[in-house]
What does this fold into?
Amino acid sequence: DADVTQTPRNRITKTGKRIMLECSQTKGHDRMYWYRQDPGLGLRLIYYSFDVKDINKGEISDGYSVSRQAQAKFSLSLESAIPNQTALYFCATSGQSYNEQFFGPGTRLTVL
Amino acid sequence: TQLLEQSPQFLSIQEGENLTVYCNSSSVFSSLQWYRQEPGEGPVLLVTVVTGGEVKKLKRLTFQFGDARKDSSLHITAAQPGDTGLYLCAGVRDYKLSFGAGTTVTVRA
It folds into this structure.
């Protein structure tokens, strides 16, 4: 079984819709992250959480929000989706050793 | 503006050839990581380098961290088609990672 799972894997939505992407992990890590990946730009950090009561903005948090429901669950919401949020979204976890990241399989989001 | 610059952006070579990917920054990092990503999957960690000047080998892959901890390189010897993928470097500062844009490597059989 995968250690980091993401749902859905693919989603097509329309401008203005609210979207939630979910992430679950069985690695027992406290730290969880949301990234987006765009061609030619690599991975950019949206939000991160170091424990259940901790939420921090990353470099591109505008238009996004997150919820850390439990140690194992971290969800990302797009309150009102816009076309330039079309991207691959990855959830990751890390332990305390050098912040080495373990990534989920990704969600491909298309906003029309 | 990318904190980490990777070069080249694309690399296509014949099986058996060698290749080097570079990762450069003007910033100092506490450690640097290399990941490989295949289509439809998330990145997978290959190695972490921590000490300036450190060299780590993983079979045919050699990773080097610059003396000043600002840059790194990945060298693949005798590349194989299974080495095809997107290679990403990531620098760690203040418990967060900054990724380079990646190098797409294609190894032709």
